[in-house]
Each structure stands twice: as structure tokens, then as C-alpha cells.
Amino acid sequence: MIRIKLRPEVETRLTAEAQARGLEVSAYIEGLLEEAVSARSVSARRQPTREEMRAFFEAMSAGSEKIPQLPDEAFQRESFYQGHDW
Q: How is the chain split into domains, by residue range?
């Protein structure tokens, strides 16, 4: 078991957040800590290799040749707001 001493204002805030979610304070804090540890684990992962990146982008672009070509005008600001009387 780990014990943590919190500043009173932090404890008050965590208590309010837990109550707003209908949770016990200890369960809420446990969830926050698990999320933080999980997020750190994800950010500590190794960088993908060139081959992994190439495979990812090839898979992502598979079938892209079937996407219709749009004229440059389709990406102008005016085309996004057609029909709006501003």
C-alpha cells in the first residue's frame, strides 16, 4: 500500500471531482494514477523503424488511387461557405 500526502487544496479538488463522477475518492485517484502510468508507458515506447513506417504509410494509402481528384477551387475559403449569407 502506498500513502500519499496531498496539499489540502488538491485533496479538496480531487474529492469534488470524485463526487461529481459518483466515485469513491480512493477509486478515482487510483484510476488517475493508472492512466498516468499507462500514458508514460506509451510515450516511452521505441520509435518505429523505417520499414515499419513505410509499411504503415503504404497500408494507409492503399486504395487512395480511387479517391476522386478535386479542382483547386474546392479548397478555397469561398467554397466552404457557399450558400451562407454573411
A: 8-60
